[in-house]
Amino acid sequence: xxxxxxxxxxxxxxxxGRRKYREVLLDILQDLGLVRSxxxxxxxxxxxxxxxxxxxxxxxxxxxxxxxxxxxVARAEGGYQIKVDDEEHMADLLKVLWATYGREKVEQPxxxxxxxxxxxxxxxxxVTDVDQEFRRDLTDALIRIAPEGFRNRxxxxxxxxxxxxxxxxxxxxxxxxEVKEKIRGMDHA
Amino acid sequence: xxxxxxxxxxxYKHDLVIELVEDLGGYVLQKNVTxxxxxxxxxxxxxxxxxxxxxxxxxxxxxxRAPLAGTEVAVVTPTLAIHHLPHSACDIAEYLRRNGxxxxxxxxxxxVGREIAQITEYETDLINEHDAAVFSYxxxxxxxxxxxxxxxxxxxxxxxxxxxxxDPQLLPYAYRYVSAVGRIAHRSRKASELEMLDxxxxxxxxxxxxxxxxxxxxxxxxxxxxxxxAVREQVPELEMSFSPLPIALNxxxxxVKLPYEDFHQAVExxxxxxxxxxxxxxxxxxxxxxxxxLVRILPMSETGFVF
Lengths: 189, 307
Fold this sequence. Notes:
The complex is a heterodimer of chains A (189) and B (307). Chain A is α+β, with helices and mostly antiparallel strands and 189 residues long. Chain A contains 5 helices and 11 strands.
């Protein structure tokens, strides 16, 4: 599935709002770098109720980032040396190494070099769970996208899809089911 | 008649501009220094404009008309959250500023949503201290129509901006509705977006003109710039105010940015050449903005004279 291969918005009675919401959505998803990770996005806004809902399908599952993914691990005197390629993950990497080996066994002789005084190789340690980070960013994006006054929210996330609904009034099971039905209709249209 | 203009130029010899304006009987409303550049907001007698223009040309500066100079405009958003700020509201505020107005951003405490949106009495009073207000709304027509209750009790002209086209009849409490400035998540950079900012400035300008013509029917005892000058001269503590603009002008008075409790008597005692004090020709009361002093000049019908 290509990035945003399916992207539909419905807002009955509000043609201008529908068009504008498309721009707002794309701007926010682009700002947070999420466009490439979403394959399908269906948005239903009912301003009569009023409520906002979005259903999306994510593009594939991202595996957790390991030490060997963020740098080159080499055997060195008394332990291992890691040459970090991507400094973005330096803070997370240090945290993991400190937690695993203890602060006294981890050193940073240079900006992008870390040494570990241990016989246990660090290759398979998980630096960061990219997928979890993506889900956090996605939830943040959905809260930003939904109108601010819609404070009653529900976010259902599965392995590869999400369903988000926000409204001013209380969210009842029947309302949620009704909206899901609408979105299913959009999906099959 | 005084012409509102903005001078932009180098710091070097800018005091010549200030001196000339004062000699001509004009006023310096605001002075902003940004490194080696200076922006002066001036009120200059229209018949003397060629003299000032000649000097500005000599100094290689730029003189532009600032139709909103000497006014304070509130830009109101339902909240200060990322949904309403910074893009459209900041662009509006900045554009108003470029046209000479002093713009204040105001985020309501509970202005969100359609059914639950509210405005407090304090917020209403604070907005009423301005000369005009711009309410920045979103992209859904029904919300914009229903949220007119937020500005129903505001006595200054309210310009409402939002996305869709709406029949002005549906917004009876708005002075003017400007469409095509709804919620956006990027800065205004397209030509069409800049054009709509111009339309807002035009609407605000027309609202202020309406205010001015209302005031002219019963003229103020003296003009706000004159009060500003006198307060600046006779209340030296103003020099110590940390505000970039220690006196903000309104069409019917000004706001002196000093604590009311400590300085209201000093402001009331300010004396004009004609022998009257400010306390006699104006109401000096606490402002809703921080603890500042609000000066409201009384009209001729109440004092019996104009100077």
